[in-house]
Amino acid sequence: MIPVEIIKHKRDNKVLTKEHLNYFIHGYLSGDVTDYQMSAFLMAVYFNGMNEQETFDLTEIMLNSGKIVDLNYIDKSKVDKHSTGGVGDKVSLILAPLVASCGISVPMISGRALGHTGGTLDKLESIPGFNVNYDLNDYKRILEKNGVVMIGQTADFAPADKKIYSLRDVTGTVDNLSLITASIMSKKLAEGADAIVFDVKMGSGANLQEKDESIKLAKYLISVSKKFGKKAIAVLTDMDEPLGNKIGNWLEVEECLEVMNGKKVSDLEKVNNVLSGAMLYLGKKAGNIDEGEKIAEEKLKDGSAYKKFLEIIEEQKGDTGYIKDWKNLKRTEYSKKISAEKDGYISEMNAFKFGLASIELGCGRKKTDDKIDYLAGIVLDKKCGDKIRKGETVCELWAEDESKTINAENLINEGIIISEKEPEKRNLIIDIID
Fold this sequence. Notes:
Blueprint: H1 3-11, H2 18-30, H3 35-48, H4 52-63, E1 79-83, H5 91-100, E2 106-109, H6 120-124, H7 136-146, E3 148-151, H8 159-169, H9 177-190, E4 195-202, H10 211-227, E5 231-238, E6 246-247, H11 249-260, H12 266-282, H13 289-301, H14 304-315, H15 320-324, E7 334-339, E8 344-349, H16 351-361, E9 377-380, E10 387-388, E11 393-399, H17 403-415, E12 416-419, E13 429-433
Parallel strand pairs: 1-4, 2-3, 4-5
Antiparallel strand pairs: 5-13, 6-9, 7-11, 8-10, 8-12, 9-11
């Protein structure tokens, strides 16, 4: 059990035993395995992968590196949702309060930006004062009182994942089937939910860009959930184009507030309502997903989701005045409009390129200690399928200074394709696996 030998074992594409993995993961937590050794290990896993048993063992070890919560004292169904990561994917901010307003407990432990994809915690922290750092006792207290809690990993929940997660973000090892599975499941199994809905993204903006890999990930997540006695549904959703019209931390909160107050953003609403419907079905508040989707639509219309969102903000020490003032647009000092170079139809808005551009603007991190600019981001004036004339604005970039928009603009221009023919309408909900 020597760290470098375990690294070489996986480098040479050999199967790791549970003992290998247990030694390496716990060694990393204790300091006997260094950051550079873990980085080498992650890269070896990235290139050679893990089989299903290795993946299950890694998940179990990371799960058992911390505490596993028992929420049986709460007399409600406990259902959570997890997205595998996308660009403009702000669904949790609408879904969590919406489902909680229906009488289901939503214990949501979320993550930060990872690679080119955004993070729910960073979005929540764009709200002044909002606290995502609670200990286990507060987690349970808030969930019981409010029916929903939205926090990050505490020292109690899967500490191995918390430490490895930030390292993956800056070492190019995000998009690996086994690492994604172990990271997701170690958190979700620890939080005490009875059932989980997985939003598995497919397309250029997903962490797994190969569609076959995304389907395999969905099946892995369902399989691991069942092994631990959890009900689960995986919804495969399109991520070739950014979701909604806004990308960036506060901008995405702002768009959710717009939707919860009546504005129509069709793709965001559709994905939100299907995922919410699946949660309502697993939580026994709907007879099937379709019925759950209809309930979700109604909860958006009648203001229930917005009311519960305000309760979340207040309970977790966020500035409710800042939220209620969302119509007075909060923006960075500098902006840059991207215009169409010819007439035609928007046939592609490559989500991966838009995600990279958002990092350049300050929405994400290039290094683990980078600070996020909460107001930076991208506002889309057009979406795929829209007709456009030369000179019309496709999108607008927002950043603290002009220098940050240069690389972002190049990436955006690479990601936008205008064609003569109207493209086929994309299918937002690709498949549902249970």
